[in-house]
Amino acid sequence: MLDQLTLLNENHRPLVTEYFSRFPPEISEQTYTNLFCRRKSRPIYIAELDDTLAFLVMGITEKKREFFLFGPPVGKLSLEQVFEELKGILAGAIRLPATNAEPLADRGYVVQTERDNWDYVYLVQNLAGLSGRAYSKKRNQIKKCLQLYDCRYEPITDRLISECMTMQEQWCAVRSCSKEPGLCSEFQAIHEMFDNFQELNLIGGCIRVDGTIQAFAVGELLHPGTAVIHFEKAMPEIIGLGQLINKWFALYGLSDFEFVNREQDLGIPGLRQAKQSYHPHHLVEKCTIFFSAGEGIHGSLVGGCAEEEYRTRT
Asked: pTM for the full model?
């Protein structure tokens, strides 16, 4: 079965995007951008099975390093059919929408919720308008920002990419990305994204503060009517800038969409509070499936990067 697996690379873009166009994904992980740009810290293997594409990652269980299905299969085969096709090399599946996973609990599978990886989905008009009492604190922060600084929004084009990357490097210097594995791998992913910006068909917006880019946001189509935001950054010392890029990107960059998926909170308390404060329309619940009781993932499925790896990109 292992000979059916191929390590994802740039040559797979037409194949992956064609499957996603025919079978639009629900979860934020399932875009070619996400899979490709994070491949150095989270290698993805793909298998094409009877007009179905399956993504796999390596996890560490009590026994050994084993493969897990990463998200639901994309195509005509059901989840259980893919389990059968890849029998012998899978230990389970992660990042499965609860609608896919929960029905299997009655069939002998061990199903656990993945609360830290639930996606937050918002109405674009709510983020663009920030109307009503629920958003009064957001509006106040934005008002302070606009009073203190000259802020101008611009769509991201090829000519702005180097400036956005310079800003990201400055953001990482402030946040010590080289010493934080998660931020380090994110830094690598952002570099990959900007290096392939046009090929990935992304939507981006940035804010100049007194003439210098100090915030950016990048997303793309997830499924009809819904965008997904992959990265949103604002220099932390500028009051209200984070709220402003959130609002202006929704207003100017995402006006063609009804909903926007802003990905997960990763179980980080401050990030969870921030995402909840924007009052999501709904959350996409996700689960993990283990094939036997007592299993568990004991190693991170998303690696970091060493300081020297970070420095090669700066």
From this structure: 0.92
